[in-house]
Amino acid sequence: MLIRSYTPTKPILQTEEDGTFELIIKTYFPSNDQPGGAMTNFLDCMPLNEEAEVRGPSGEIEYNGNRDFIIEGKEMHFDRVTLP
């Protein structure tokens, strides 16, 4: 198992009920200077329409689906979520 943190560039919007999001990930290919990125090379080699298991967000915010969160122990609902 390999875990890396990425931030979506297109957050989950109210119209995206299937929970989709987009990521922009720079691939670090192996070279004489560095071994390359383990996760980025794995994602780069994935066939189109292949699935990867993801989780998130991480930290002190718990996401319960349907735009429902627990933040600092309080249940909260947001109509729109933007992740920087």
TrEMBL record:
Keyword Ligase: no
Residue span, Flavoprotein pyridine nucleotide cytochrome reductase-like FAD-binding domain: 2-63
Subcellular location: Membrane
InterPro entries linked: CBR-like, Cbr1-like_FAD-bd_dom, Riboflavin_synthase-like_b-brl
SUPFAM superfamilies, A to Z: Riboflavin synthase domain-like
Cofactor(s) of this protein: FAD
Predominant location: membrane
Entry keyword set: FAD, Flavoprotein, Membrane, Oxidoreductase
Name of one Pfam family that matches: FAD_binding_6
Protein's UniProt name: Flavoprotein pyridine nucleotide cytochrome reductase-like FAD-binding domain-containing protein
Organism: Stereocaulon virgatum
Taxonomic lineage from the root: Eukaryota, Fungi, Dikarya, Ascomycota, Pezizomycotina
